[in-house]
């Protein structure tokens, strides 16, 4: 009996020990990655600055390791500061890490509820991505390269006539390209109403899609407070933004449909896909939002990259002169560089890679998990927002020495890892406009270098105005406004611009720019 009792007691003790050990083991595997200690309720929210959060995240990584867990009201955050961690999670486990943080401000209040870039990885999202693959894949882009080349000449002509408005002209050019691809629409650069709608919508998108900027994203219940309430500034902002956003998404789409009924539309992403949709309302809705994804994705990003390019050229005349010498030698001065020249212009390509690295347009790229996961003995709960710190990877001194300096030779001569492999995102969410975006940016950089000198501006007394290099907070990182001087390199260059622009205008108005990928 006593033996039995002992046995029973020993078994119970062993059982308890097992449970305890299992508990320990479980708790060990349930450990979140390390991170700075936060406050009750507010978590780490006060440790994330609005200005340069990517730098603060990188610095946290220096203390905690390359993955850092943070808590802010409404979200568990996991910051990924190394290429390896980003690759292991966002690329290799893309099926788990391809949702998005669900912002109340951008999706519910502003009217971007159907936006591809903000959707979770749902069946609807995958249908939209399939359409975007067809319209922006390698052979589709190949089919509208002639249009992009033609557009470059018009861009230079506009730049020559109003050089002080270089950012606006760059954005109007991006609008023209994206509206042409999306809707076959010619002339948006001169259509004030549509340009204003698209321009405003990209601003609303960039301001509201940024994580943590709006209290209503952290406390969604706030969306029910009335707009007259003193702290309800976000409701008043949304009341202004929503009608603009809704009109911008619907108007060009409905116009394309109307033109199709009249038989007066050219080939475009929307018209070609609508032709196959047979009036199915779901498919039409996917096409509408995928078309919007093209101009929402293209206008701001390409304008931001090119703004950083102008700033870099004004600050580094020696880099500019070297790239110009390459163009003079390879292309000559009788024609403009074309996208097809890309492989023959390695230094110009290195300048482009360095622009994308120096100040990435998307410093922080947020994905979210759709289920619990484990990584390196850490537990990562479902709905964690996993943020790729693109800036930290592209400014890792072990990989890119003197990372804050502008040194294109790191790519053309030293074999540094290609910034273009990082700057366009990861896994299933990687940028669908990567090929056309690079072609557009390359064409702009190469043709501007071929024909203009970009230098620091001077004030009325002739003193040099030193441009400041300052990031702008928001989902798209563009430089704070700065002045530069943009002048044709020579009379021959000015003449080349005039001749090329004239020639572009003689090309048929409706280039058959489009064929879809298989
Ligand atoms: C040239 C500059 C560009 C840069 C640096 C850039 C960068 C990015 C990045 C980092 C992402 C997020 C990827 C991720 O979550 O992992 C993204 C998404 C996206 N980009 Fe781009 N992009 C550029 C141009 C374009 C262009 C030209 C288009 C369209 C024609 C475009 C359309 C989109 C869309 C629709 C998404 C959302 C994809 C999704 O959420 O699944 N982008 N881009």
From TrEMBL:
Binding site for heme: 431
Keywords attached to this entry: Heme, Iron, Membrane, Metal-binding, Monooxygenase, Oxidoreductase, Transmembrane, Transmembrane helix
Keyword Nucleus on entry: no
Pathway: Secondary metabolite biosynthesis
Keyword Transcription: no
InterPro entries to which the protein is assigned, alphabetical: Cyt_P450 (IPR001128), Cyt_P450_CS (IPR017972), Cyt_P450_E_grp-I (IPR002401), Cyt_P450_sf (IPR036396), Cytochrome_P450_fung (IPR050364)
Family: Belongs to the cytochrome P450 family.
Name of the protein: Cytochrome P450
Gene name for this UniProt entry: PcCYP_50f
């Amino acid at each position: 009996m006593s033996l039995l009792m002992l046995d029973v007691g020993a078994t119970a003790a062993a059982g308890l020990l097992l449970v305890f050990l299992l508990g320990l083991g479980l708790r060990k595997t349930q450990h979140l990655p390390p991170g700075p200690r936060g406050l009750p309720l507010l978590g780490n929210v006060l440790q994330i600055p609005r200005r340069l959060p990517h730098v603060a995240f990188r610095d946290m990584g220096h203390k905690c390791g390359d993955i850092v867990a943070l808590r802010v009201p409404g979200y568990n955050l996991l910051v990924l500061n190394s290429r390896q961690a980003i690759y292991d999670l966002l690329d290799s486990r893309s099926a788990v890490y391809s949702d998005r943080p669900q912002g109340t401000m951008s999706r519910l209040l502003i009217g971007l509820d159907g936006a591809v870039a903000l959707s979770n990885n749902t069946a609807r999202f995958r249908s939209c991505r399939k359409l975007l693959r067809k319209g922006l894949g390698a052979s589709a882009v190949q089919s509208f390269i002639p249009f992009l080349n033609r557009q470059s000449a018009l861009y230079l002509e506009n730049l020559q006539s109003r050089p002080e408005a270089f950012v606006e002209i760059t954005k109007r050019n991006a609008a023209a390209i994206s509206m042409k691809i999306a809707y076959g629409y010619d002339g948006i650069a001169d259509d004030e109403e549509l340009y204003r709608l698209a321009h405003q919508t990209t601003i609303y998108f960039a301001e509201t899609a940024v994580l943590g900027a709006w209290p209503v994203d952290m406390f969604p219940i706030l969306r029910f407070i009335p707009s007259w309430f003193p702290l309800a500034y976000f409701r008043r902002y949304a009341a202004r933004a929503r009608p603009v956003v809704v009109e911008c998404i619907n108007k060009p789409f409905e116009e394309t449909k109307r033109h199709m009924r009249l038989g007066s539309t050219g080939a475009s992403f929307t018209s070609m896909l609508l032709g196959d949709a047979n009036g199915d309302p779901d498919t039409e809705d996917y096409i509408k939002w995928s078309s919007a994804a093209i101009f929402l994705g293209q206008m701001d990003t390409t304008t931001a990259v090119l703004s950083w390019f102008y700033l870099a050229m004004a600050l580094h005349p020696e880099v500019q002169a070297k790239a110009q010498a390459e163009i003079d030698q390879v292309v000559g001065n009788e024609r403009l560089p074309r996208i097809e020249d890309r492989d023959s212009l390695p230094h110009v390509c290195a300048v482009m890679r360095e622009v994308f690295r120096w100040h990435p347009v998307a410093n922080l790229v947020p994905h979210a998990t759709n289920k619990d996961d484990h990584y390196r003995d850490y537990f990562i709960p479902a709905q964690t927002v996993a943020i790729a710190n693109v800036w930290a990877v592209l400014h890792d001194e072990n990989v890119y020495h003197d990372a804050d300096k502008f040194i294109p030779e790191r790519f053309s001569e030293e074999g540094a890892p290609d910034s273009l492999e990082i700057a366009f995102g990861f896994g299933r969410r990687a940028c669908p406009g990567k090929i056309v975006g690079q072609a557009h940016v390359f064409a702009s950089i190469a043709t501007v270098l071929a024909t203009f000198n970009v230098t620091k501006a001077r004030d009325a007394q002739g003193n040099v105005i030193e441009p400041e290099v300052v990031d702008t907070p928001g989902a798209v990182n563009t430089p704070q406004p700065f002045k530069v001087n943009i002048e044709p390199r020579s009379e021959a260059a000015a003449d080349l611009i005039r001749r090329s622009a004239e020639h572009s205008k003689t090309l048929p108005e409706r280039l058959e720019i489009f064929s879809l990928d298989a």
